[in-house]
Amino acid sequence: MTPPLAHDGGPRGHVLVVDDELSMREYLEILLVREGYAVTSVPAVAAACDVLAKDSVDLVISDMKLGPGGSGLDVLRAARARKEPPEVVLITAFGTPSSAVEAMREGAYDYICKPFDNEELRLLVHKALEKRALRQENSTLKARLLPGLGGLLVGNSPRMRALWQLVEKVAPGRSTVLVTGESGTGKELVARAVHLSGHRAAQPFLPFNCAALNEGVLESELFGHMRGSFTGATHERHGLLLSAGEGTVMLDEVGEMPLSTQVKLLRVLQERKVKPVGSAAEIPFHARVIAATNRRLEAEVKAGRFREDLFYRLNVITLELPPLRERPEDIPHLAGFFLSRLAEELGRPSLRFAPETLSLMERYAFPGNVRQLQNMVERAATLSDSDMLGPTTLPPSVRGEAEPTARTGEGGEPVLGPGFNLERHLDDNERRHLLAALKQAQGVKTRAAELLGLSFRSFRYRLAKHGLTDELDEPTPRA
């Protein structure tokens, strides 16, 4: 097996060979150059350190024994100390496994024993460089995507700094994570950050709303189904847990999952296997599961609406997002982040907040949290004729004023007073009805949508518009 050509037609990677025997250095150099690699060969640890300090090296191949000047372990440690460390393969004498094990503990990619087969070495080099390329791809992906998430997640408040540190700690593992917080705090963003900060970044991230579908479709979407297992199942399909591969599946609004599905999800998480609808066989899956909810699951357990054993299975690691009113020092940072993005989109680079505008926003409670703040900034930037966004660009409720309303005349027709705005008036009424429906339905969104005569999709859209829920892509049922 040979490694792929570099995109620019140049060398496939830079390999540093370290061996105190000239014949071995020349042999390895000829072998690797023929495979298309750029090769630098040196006889000792000090020379290897110089190359590592000056040049970009993708792979180090070093003999374990390098004479009185040091050993392959010294080369390994020098390589691992680099900001972007190369992979390291060590060559050991036959029958010296203890030193090889120590090298693996210290971060070597692998080792190979003398005498070795050329094809064995070629394959090992290819695999090592493949791993490095994947690691660099993940780093590039994080560098491109995490700043956007970081703008929403990292603030000046101690709680958000602590949350981000916890995200970095839990990201490399595979433990189930439970993200909690009020609607609009950014639970999906935290789940994406966990995904992007770990080794799964290059794999799929599949968010799924547990409240959006009825029980039968919900199980089919999660676990998959067999052909003919129900009406309309014209072919076999994988569920999300299998489709995600080694990526991440986010189960949003997990607190609204039916109890019968909760039982099946618990078994799936315990066994790490799924049984598609209509199948007798279980299939292993490797995706990480992140659950999210705006409910207090402990209270749901006491009320008998959520299984206690599933709660403990999901609650291995909890990431709790504080509401915006509990971290007002983050509001200027977040508002500035949203405004900078809008300024670029609108082609108005001079857009800025007046100091008194930021002061008003810092004092506001933001029941819709970060999503509401984002909508507020977008409204101000879009409607303002000036680049300086003053207090008048904010809704009256934020300024501490009553919203201008329409009075009724003698004939029952509305009388429109100064400052009345039809769009704001309709939005305010819509928001009040949404909140009233949620209260009457005890937070069950499917029931609230029925009370308002709306489809669930339309209801979710309106909640997102008013900053009353996290912005999520709706799942699209597949045949």
List the helices and strands and how they pair.
Blueprint: E1 14-18, H1 22-34, E2 38-42, H2 45-54, E3 59-63, H3 72-80, E4 87-92, H4 97-105, E5 110-113, H5 118-153, H6 158-170, E6 177-180, H7 187-197, E7 205-209, H8 215-223, E8 224-225, E9 237-238, H9 240-243, E10 248-252, H10 259-271, E11 273-274, E12 283-284, E13 288-293, H11 297-302, H12 308-314, E14 317-320, H13 331-346, E15 352-353, H14 355-363, H15 369-383, E16 388-389, H16 396-399, E17 407-408, E18 414-415, H17 422-440, H18 445-451, H19 456-465
Parallel strand pairs: 1-2, 1-3, 3-4, 4-5, 6-13, 6-14, 7-10, 10-13, 15-16
Antiparallel strand pairs: 8-9, 11-12, 17-18
Written overview of the protein:
With 479 residues, this protein is an alpha/beta fold. It is built from 19 helices and 18 strands. It has helices at residues 22-34, 45-54, 72-80, 97-105, 118-153, 158-170, 187-197, 215-223, 240-243, 259-271, 297-302, 308-314, 331-346, 355-363, 369-383, 396-399, 422-440, 445-451, 456-465; strands at 14-18, 38-42, 59-63, 87-92, 110-113, 177-180, 205-209, 224-225, 237-238, 248-252, 273-274, 283-284, 288-293, 317-320, 352-353, 388-389, 407-408, 414-415. A 5-stranded parallel β-sheet has the order 2-1-3-4-5, sandwiched between helices. Strands 7-10-13-6-14 form a 5-stranded parallel β-sheet, with helices on one face. Helix 17 crosses helix 18 (445-451) and helix 18 crosses helix 19 (456-465). The longest helix has 36 residues, at 118-153. The radius of gyration is 29 Å and the shape is globular. The two termini are 39 Å apart. Mean pLDDT is 82; it is low at 1-10 and 470-479.
